[in-house]
Amino acid sequence: MEGYKRILKGTIVSDVMDKTVVVEVSRFKSHPLYVKRVKDSRRYKAHDEHNQYKVGDYVEIQETRPISKEKTWKVVT
After folding, report:
1. What is residue 9's three-state secondary structure?
2. What's the fold here for domain 7-75?
């Protein structure tokens, strides 16, 4: 699977940093015992080269090479 890059969709929850946005990706998982759907969310720091995305925007992020200590994603749309 050489060249495979994951793509996730989520909402921007912070745009305070320069060239970086925080994207919250929500998923539904099934609870192992109660078999109820539970909302699970994670936050990813993503690279935004031109600071064009704002809080509340729905975007896609793509896995990329490490840009900094915590930033290994970039915003594609």
Report:
1. strand
2. OB fold (Dihydrolipoamide Acetyltransferase, E2P) (2.40.50)
